[in-house]
Amino acid sequence: MDTNRIKILVVGNGMVGHQFVESMAEKQQAYDITVLSAEPRLAYDRVHLSEFFGGKSAEDLALTTSEHYDELGVNFVTNEKITEINRTDKFVTASSGQTYRYDKLVLATGSYPFVPPIPGNTQEHCLVYRTIEDLEAISASAKSGKVGVVIGGGLLGLEAANAIKQLGLDTHVVEFAPQLMAVQLDQAGGNLLKNKIEDLGVTVHTQKVTQVIEQGDSCRYKLKFSDGTELETDLVLFSAGIRPLDELAKKFDLAIGERGGIVINDQCQTSDENIFAIGECALWQNFIFGLVAPGYTMARVVADQLSGGSMMFNGADMSTKLKLMGVEVGSIGDAHAKTPGSKSYIFENQIKGVYKKLVIDEDKNKILGAVLVGDTSDYDSLLQISLNDMDLPDAPESLILPNSSGAEPMGAVELPDCAMICSCHNVTKGDIKQAIADGTTDLSELKQCTKASTGCGGCTALLKTTVDKELLALGVEVKDDICEHFAYSRKQLFHIVKVEQIKSFDALRDKHGKGHGCEICKPAVGNILASVWNDYILEQSHLPLQDTNDTYLGNMQKDGTYSIVPRIAGGEITPDKLIVLGEVAKKYNLYTKLTGGQRIDLFGARVDQLPPIWEELIQAGFETGHAYGKSLRTVKSCVGSTWCRYGVQDSVGQAIELENRYKGLRSPHKIKFAVSGCTRECAEAQSKDIGIIATENGWNLYVCGNGGMKPRHGDLFATDLDTQTMVRYIDRILMFYVRTADRLQRTSVWLEALDGGLEYLQQVIIEDSLGLALELESQMQRVVDSYQCEWKTTIENPESLKRFRQFVNSELTDSNIQFVTEREQIRPATPAEKQLIPIKEL
């Protein structure tokens, strides 16, 4: 080590400490940097820590490696806890006895989880949620328990609840305040979040003060509350906030705030000019920032100061957008409308579980804050208007109302160049434009050179919109890569899979992609593989690609149960099969509903009940209805000429033949058919992806209609077709759609996006303008010939059946699933009703 070079010593190697190291490396100046980490590993991603329970390893979460630090010339020591600072002679002493000299000392010690002083809080299975070692302890504890409680209903508490829910525990959240996320959300938003999380199977207890944790009767422990109630649990997870890790600074006379935290100035200096503090251990203007983005900004400030710059820390925006247990939540600025004179606009859709609140100043000119629960699609626009002090439109309420009201989401093109796109890494729209002007037009490369969207990831959508619009403005073709792991569109990946005979995600990624894949490319590739090869989707190589519905071959409902949807082709069913459905529904106490697609859905089955139910149904001649998949759902029909005096063709027979032909097809989105026996259109064929209406001379074929949020009538594609020709056309249309559509794109949107629209599609299908007709028909025939009932395959496979257990470590069922009776059938109990239902002894 060069004794003449300035020695910078960094104590702490969390996300913020690591950011400082990276920021110093960018300065390319002559310093000797030494990093001391009290943990046994180098920096890792705490923001996505919960993904550890989803299968990610410590290596997957790592932000750096020893090789990378070696390349940067950074010295580092792990498992090295500092116990002493000698400010006079400028060295620190570690618990190992080793000393380290410094010219400048950077304290990035972070924070520690606050454990409330509750008697009994130090017992073996009373844990915290902070490090990878904590997660390993939680996982080990969960293997021998059935109930888990999280004390703390803030952001981290709900993350922790999601973690133990994933481990198969009956999960409870205990919160002192009257609502969840009381700092970020107002009462209405907090109440909606509570309802949504309880619908997902987590019981929430608010306004509860835990007085003692003692030995339980049916579980390890019993929590006794101040109101006289009790809660039994096997695991207690404390997530009641954080406290700055400032003991070292306090012990050696650095200025500390009244409630903790190392006091810093705008240069992030402590009361000792040679010692800096950054991240969650630092107190700036009596405020501690508990998010990673402000810590990153502090790290850049110190790196700039040590390099002779003049950058200052001026505070940070504490707005938050996240997804908790699948529930979207956003909070901006003054969410509680505490600013004098402030006014609020509130939009609530109780049916869809959406709550939005916009807080503005008394002059109706500026945004002061916002709350979004259930839908954060407006978050980026609202945040940018707020951060850039932009004037509000004449009707501010349009910013949170659904688009059907006339509101248009603000695009990146309207933002000023100073707009902060990525607050984690301080990347503005101007930085993005400059990077593009310098020749970086690839999104993944742009992320690397600017670091935008490499922090918490919350700006990913806004970044892509900004990049796409800037490229289009420059006349540059915008790539439609499916994600950063594949530099191809879905259409291109489909052709690669087919032409190169690729049969697995790993093979495709190894040859044409990079990284580990993500929640975008994995299900998309899984869908492509199913469309091309039609393999059993629960094969081990395909299993990680499936979403929850496909994984369990059923639609998950709001209370965590599943629906049973056997295929009833064309809506035709025998009395014997009707009796079987009734017997099964009665035996398993399932809610029974006739659907708009002319079949019968049975609701309320626990995951462990799915195999025995399907075994009975398959023995009776039923097969899966694919209600869970991106595939053919139903072929609706009227009774046609068989019974109706107006019918001119056998619509039921035609519907059954079509449904049996296409029932195995996996596609970019769900597909629905209908066949009407005459022009009176009782089957509503013109509102379906494929619609068929009988004529005196054959069949009229309609394409690309749909209902839903944006209804579209199908277009008349061809008239008076004979059955054989019609089937050939449908083969070609569906396979052309499967080959060329984008991921999750309905046929209606696909047709509108086709260059040339309906006329072009008619040329391809009828006139064979691309010379693909025989190939498309052959591909479809392969799908038809390789059909299998996925549930039949599953119940014949003992290995596949192992996943259909309520808990991975127990044969017990989920006691949180509760029903009440309404109109002589069950329905999920509301949170209030669950409190009245006695828990059965297991």
**Strand line-up in the sheet with most strands:** 3-2-1-7-19
- Strands, count: 38
Rg, nearest Å: 30 Å
Mean pLDDT: 88
Please report which band the strand proportion falls in: under 5%, 5-15%, 15-25%, 25-35%, 35-45% or over 45%. 15-25%
Specify the biggest β-sheet.
Answer: 5 strands, parallel
Number of helices: 26
User: What percent of the residues sit in helical stretches (DSSP H or I)?
Assistant: 25-40%
Classify the oligomer. Answer: single chain
Shape: globular
Could you characterize what this model shows?
This protein has 842 residues and is an alpha/beta fold. The chain has 26 helices and 38 strands. The strands form 11 sheets. The chain has a 5-stranded parallel β-sheet with strand order 3-2-1-7-19, with helices on one face. Strands 9-16-10-11-12 form a 5-stranded parallel β-sheet. The chain starts with 5 loop residues before the first strand and ends in an 8-residue tail after the last helix. The relative contact order is 0.06.
